[in-house]
Amino acid sequence: MNTAHFLVKSDLKFVDKSTYTWQTPSNIALVKYWGKSNPQIPKNASISFTLNNCHTITTIEFDKKEKGDVVEFDLFFEGKQKDTFKPKIAEFFARIQEYCPYIFEYKMIINSENSFPHSSGIASSASGLSAIARCLMSLENELNSELTEEYINKKASFLARLGSGSASRSIEGPLVVWGNHSEIEGSSDLFGVRFPYKVHTVFENYQDAILLVDKGEKQVSSTVGHNLMHNHPYAENRFTQANENLTKISEILQNGDVKAFVSLVESEALTLHAMMMTSNPYFILMKPNTLEIINRIWEYRNQNDSNICFTLDAGANVHVLYPECEKGAVNQFIENELSQYCQKNHYICDSVGFGAKKM
Ligand code: PMV
User: Fold this and answer.
1) Which amino acid residue places its CA nearest to atom 9 of ligand 1?
2) The whole model's pTM is what?
3) Contact 163/129 with Cβ under 8 angstroms?
């Protein structure tokens, strides 16, 4: 499939007014995407758990206007006009205008809110951009009723990807692969697809507690971060390793080997950070409390024969992953022992979710 698949037909049936609201989730990568080429093409395939509680809810009101050559929109975040967010969204619209030319025919009022606290260090670009993409696809479906549900989801992911790569994994759930991979049927660099094989029951309703070690602005934006992979001495090996890890995790997810899951997922997280530590310029994104938490998790795992593990984003916060059967004990452990390492003892309990929901 190529990008021409996502162009619109010429005889759209325009409506005067329409409003859509979508809730779309955040996601946490198990095999990480780090490194890309233009336009938002990943250097390796990645896979993530879709989250359930961490999400964005976005409403877009579309009002028909004379076709113009600028995209007209107002942006409100948590009820307040937010012009500081506008350049990022304007850039997103510029990247998708070829595939959504109807955005020149409407004035858009975008209202957005997140379920997780603003500047909690949880990236809102994945849920934020996928929510806009999903609202646009609802409008497109109204202008062209021939679209199938499958096409709508694919194109929503395709559009979201053009805003932020990982946003392509925030349309469906519970596990989404993005990036062309020989062993994942239907996988593509252009959009995310649901993991196509039967997943072992141990990975159903998997838990993710997000420990907020550092709620500040990201020290390294993902644009800067991905660029660090150009001319990185270990980049090519890393891309090969990630694709091999995707083969391995695909087997693990099917056969239920949780011990293998734990070591692969932790290794992926540490490798992501190792790539940043060995970039030029270099960065350490973990904080002392990130390491405290990791050591406590390892101790707990050994002492309790547990399958708890951690993963990291490009920041200091820690995602603690564990099977549902350990929920009671691990939640106690987090509350009693790990929350002290979080800013203001703040953490968010989440679990795997199923993707975008129309409101
Ligand atoms: O989607 P971006 O460009 O913000 O990149 C996300 C990169 C990581 O979160 C570090 C890894 C991933 O696969 O989500």
Assistant:
1) 313
2) 0.97
3) yes
Q: What's the gap in Å between 29 CA and the centre of ligand 1?
A: 8
Read off the CATH number of the domain in which 328 is found: 3.30.70.890
Taking the C-alpha atoms of residue 273 and residue 267, their distance in angstroms, rounded to an integer, is 10
Predicted confidence at residue 218, as pLDDT, reads: 75
Distance CA 67, CA 102 (A): 9
Question: Which of 32, 157, 181 has the most ligand 1 atoms within 8 A of CB, as the residue to mutate?
Answer: 32
Q: How far is the CA of 16 from the centre of ligand 1 (A)?
A: 37
Provide the H-helix boundaries in the chain. 86-96, 125-143, 149-163, 222-227, 235-255, 258-277, 288-304, 327-333
pLDDT, one tens digit per residue, over 200-244 is 999 999 999 999 998 877 788 888 999 999 999 999 999 999 999
The answer on 212 and 321 residing in a single domain is yes
Ligand 1, residues at Cβ distance < 6 Å: 29, 32-34, 46, 123, 125, 164-166, 222, 226, 272, 313-314
- Kindly state whether residues 10 and 145 are assigned to the same domain: yes
User: To test the ligand 1 pocket, which listed residue (33, 47, 191) has its Cβ within 8 A of the most ligand atoms?
Assistant: 33
**Residues 49 and 188 grouped into a single domain:** yes
The CA 15 to ligand 1 mean position distance, Å, reads: 36
Inside any domain, residue 356: no
User: Containing domain of residue 289, as a range?
Assistant: 205-351
Does one domain contain both 9 and 114?
yes
- How far is the C-alpha of 356 from the C-alpha of 359, rounded, in Å? 10
